[in-house]
Amino acid sequence: MNTSVAVLVLSLPFAATAASRASTVPPTIAAGAAIAGDASRAQPVARGAAIAASRNPVTVAAEGTRPVVEVTIHEGDTLATMANYYDVSVEAVAFANGLTDARALQLGQKLVIPPAEGALYTVKDGDTVDTIASHFKVDPSVVLTYNRCTFEPEQCAAGQKIFVRGAELPALAEPEVRPRDVFAPAPQVAQQPRNGRLAWPVGGVITQYFWWGHTGVDVAAPFGTGLGAGDDGVVTATGWVAVGGLRVCVQHTGNLTVCYYHTSAVYVNVGQQVARGQIIAAIGISGVTTGPHVHWECKIGSAFKDCLSL
């Protein structure tokens, strides 16, 4: 009995040491989980893919800008048709190509179209941002911002082509107007009775009706569409006038005169007899206008009348 107790007492320290060592070794599964968790927390995750390696950063053009384009003049093209198509003024296209006469185009000629309304300008020796801005009546910031002169000064060096948005541009030479073309008296007056109501000049869309502040009816149609005479009559005037641009007027019986403004071409001459529906001109954008249409204007004597009521 004493011997057994003695053995038990002597073995206690060894058992305690073994238990202590066992408690310091973590279970295999628990250790694996802990390592996996640490590895997960250490992973570098890109936030919102803002700096992901697959992205390709590029410089984005300013909103509302477009590149300079080059076009070739074909049959029927004019400065006006080119300007209207690209939504810039005739003066902007003319300045970009060094033209002073709107009629100086030739078939096959190349035209440069500016990216917006303004001046496409080649920088000369001695030019500065301030002198260019002063010349075109704009703020220097307009030149600096659009052409990135501050960050890329080489863009604005001599010989470089820059764009001055909103520049004041020189006017084109006015077309020569022959004296007889401005309200020339007709050698004869219409004698045939009218064939009922006036025929519509073109199959288009009315964009503005006759009212006390607007002397005619505006009818929009594609550029170049033919305009027909409202009735039998005699041509009394053709040619250019202020605001109305290229126009043609026809006199009918009953002291009625009908005029067609903003045309792109006139196919008849003063004194010529025309028939109802005969094509006498074409839809255009001459004069002061925001798009291709005809200002259809009627007068009985000197009083303006609504063409839709005649």
- % residues in beta strands: 15-25%
Number of helices: 6
Order of helices and strands: HHEHHEEHHEEEEEEEEEEE
Number of discrete domains: 2
Largest sheet: 10 strands, antiparallel
Summarize the topology.
Elements lengths: L1 H22 L4 H14 L27 E4 L6 H8 L3 H7 L13 E4 L4 E5 L6 H7 L4 H8 L13 E5 L39 E4 L7 E5 L5 E3 L4 E9 L3 E8 L3 E11 L6 E2 L4 E5 L9 E8 L2 E3 L5
Antiparallel strand pairs: 1-2, 3-4, 5-6, 6-13, 7-12, 8-9, 8-11, 9-10, 10-12, 10-13, 13-14
Explain what you see.
The protein has 310 residues and is an alpha+beta fold. The chain folds into two domains: 97 residues, LysM domain (Membrane-bound Lytic Murein Transglycosylase D, Chain A); 131 residues, Glucose Permease (Domain IIA), CATH 2.70.70.10. It contains six helices and 14 strands. A hairpin with a 7-residue loop joins β5 and β6. α3 packs across α4 and α5 packs across α6. About 20% of the residues have low confidence.
Question: TL;DR?
Answer:
By secondary structure, this protein is an alpha+beta fold. The protein has helices at 2-23, 28-41, 79-86, 90-96, 129-135, 140-147; strands spanning 69-72, 110-113, 118-122, 161-165, 205-208, 216-220, 226-228, 233-241, 245-252, 256-266, 273-274, 279-283, 293-300, 303-305. It starts with a helix and ends in a 5-residue tail after the last strand.
Feature tags:
Membrane-bound Lytic Murein Transglycosylase D, Chain A; 10-stranded antiparallel β-sheet; 6 helices; 310 residues; elongated; 25% strand; Glucose Permease (Domain IIA); two-stranded antiparallel ribbon; 2 domains; alpha+beta
